[in-house]
């Protein structure tokens, strides 16, 4: 069995990941961790996440960033389900100690230091490690993930957006003179478990946020190699992302070329479902799938693509498991489907 530790296991992504690892036929939990001064230190994991009662009998152990390397000899891999700045430091220490790390935060997803400073608000301390990190978009970077010691698991909106756009970009069908426009809505779990006014029950409505300034704009653009306009919305539901993407295709592109691009990109990729009807959050909630469907307006040459995922699963934890599957020599979907 591959033994894994999860740091940030009290949070939404970490808890879901613990559930996936618990059920996985090849992996087992070595330890579940929270921060040094966590209010949840030494609590039972299942006392916080009751759906795992009598399933995962573990205590949440506090660990400091400076002590993180001591986990390396105790397990085969460490998942960081922690805030960005905490991940910057911990991932560096784990790699330095010879460990394998899957970071679910945004700490190692971008390559340009000035863009990181602009969108994340801090100066990245380990630029050389940024060049070693592999972007864990599992359907696209499998060969690199298999060799990586640091995998930067993509953000939730970028997973939904890139899954929809990359087949068209690879097939060179996108008219580069018109910037693709992504409108996406996420359930409130995307903002994490800790109490915040903006995600409290009476405040959550259905509204745009981070307009023209969200950190996922440069993440999508970098890994698509094309600029995008991205507008996230907070929805009044718990989980799931629906992204509606409008883009202009090169003149003369027909529906057969588009269908071919998606079929070529995702043939044999079980976790991407090319649907015959419009995706809906209820069809992906609680699943590791990306659902895609598209329609071409032949009059204008514009294409609408809709993508749906569960933000905590394909947008975080289950994609992290896909990456770990690849890294340790298993099929990408092992233990997930
Ligand atoms: N929720 C989602 O849909 C997605 C989340 N992500 C990313 O995954 C990561 C986790 O997100 P999410 O689960 O939503 O966040 P939560 O706020 O729900 O959980 C964060 C976890 O990190 C722990 N933590 C905080 N600071 C530290 C630290 N310095 N050292 C160790 N543990 C720490 C927290 O526990 P405590 O503070 O008690 O120590 C908690 O367990 C984030 O980087 C997020 O951006 C990515 C994609 C989607
Ligand atoms: C609804 C909501 O607030 N969603 C989060 C995205 C969560 C995610 O994917 O996160 P990271 O890039 O931080 O890992 C946000 O917009 O910040």
Automatic annotation (TrEMBL):
Catalytic activity: N-acetyl-L-glutamate 5-semialdehyde + phosphate + NADP(+) = N-acetyl-L-glutamyl 5-phosphate + NADPH + H(+)
Pathway entry: Amino-acid biosynthesis; L-arginine biosynthesis; N(2)-acetyl-L-ornithine from L-glutamate: step 3/4
GO molecular function: N-acetyl-gamma-glutamyl-phosphate reductase activity; NAD binding; NADP+ binding
GO cellular component terms given for this protein: cytoplasm
UniProt subcellular location: Cytoplasm
SMART domains the record matches: Semialdhyde_dh (SM00859)
SUPFAM superfamilies cross-referenced by the UniProt entry: Glyceraldehyde-3-phosphate dehydrogenase-like, C-terminal domain, NAD(P)-binding Rossmann-fold domains
GO biological process, one term: L-arginine biosynthetic process
Major subcellular location class: cytoplasm
Active site: 156
Keyword terms of this UniProt record: Amino-acid biosynthesis, Arginine biosynthesis, Cytoplasm, NADP, Oxidoreductase
Semialdehyde dehydrogenase NAD-binding domain residues: 3-148
Enzyme class, UniProt record, top EC level: oxidoreductase
EC number(s) reported in the record: 1.2.1.38
Function summary: Catalyzes the NADPH-dependent reduction of N-acetyl-5-glutamyl phosphate to yield N-acetyl-L-glutamate 5-semialdehyde.
Similarity comment: Belongs to the NAGSA dehydrogenase family. Type 1 subfamily.
Protein name per its UniProtKB record: N-acetyl-gamma-glutamyl-phosphate reductase
Taxonomic lineage: Bacteria, Pseudomonadati, Pseudomonadota, Gammaproteobacteria, Alteromonadales
